[in-house]
Amino acid sequence: MAKPLIMVVDDEIDVANSITNTIKDTKTYDVITAYSAQEALALLKKNKILLGLGGNRIRLIFLDIKMPEMNGLQFLSRIRKDFGEDIGVCMLTAWEDEEKWDQATSGFVVNYIKKPFKSEEILSTIENFLGGNEGKMVLNTFEKHINKREEFEKNKEGQV
């Protein structure tokens, strides 16, 4: 039986390779790496399951927000439009503000990990997602977003 396929999308080569190696080291999952959204779209198309079955061999994507040409949030929107909601997406970014959280949670992401990341965060995201906890993860991410929204509001009030 084929191992679950995970994709890492990040234009920072060292970061992308670090995540990829963290996943590969488990010897439990197959992983592919894309260094741009365009490259990732090509990999998604290549891994589409044919014969009318629908779906994609790629089960989970770790996605950076800040990338040239097409950022991660634009890419997330494109995934949802072209490939549906079956593919799990975990945002992985150094950029954290209310607008990015709003866009990410409206795209039903399963997690939002802030850089610098810990290997344990990557691996627990994979285990929870592939363990059938996607719905709970989306809800937990939304709840984190509500807490972040309150934090953003407090910061705004403190700046006035």
Features:
Rossmann fold; 51% helix; 160 residues; 6 helices; 16% strand
Please render the helix and strand layout as text.
Layout: E1 5-9, H1 13-24, E2 30-34, H2 37-46, E3 58-63, H3 72-83, E4 88-93, H4 98-106, E5 111-114, H5 119-130, H6 134-159
Parallel strand pairs: 1-2, 1-3, 3-4, 4-5
Helix pairs in contact: 4-6
Distance between the termini: 58 Å
CATH architecture classification: 3-Layer(aba) Sandwich
Integer-rounded radius of gyration: 16 Å
- Major sheet attributes: 5 strands, parallel
- Please give the domain count: 1
**Individual helix count:** 6
Question: What is the CATH topology classification name?
Answer: Rossmann fold
Write up this protein.
By secondary structure, this protein is an alpha/beta fold. The chain has one domain: Rossmann fold (3-Layer(aba) Sandwich). The chain is 51% helix and 16% strand. It has a five-stranded parallel beta sheet with strand order 2-1-3-4-5, sandwiched between helices. Helix 1 (13-24) links the parallel strand 1 (5-9) and strand 2. Helix 4 (98-106) runs antiparallel to helix 6 (134-159). It starts with a strand and ends with a helix. The model has no long low-confidence stretch (mean pLDDT 86).
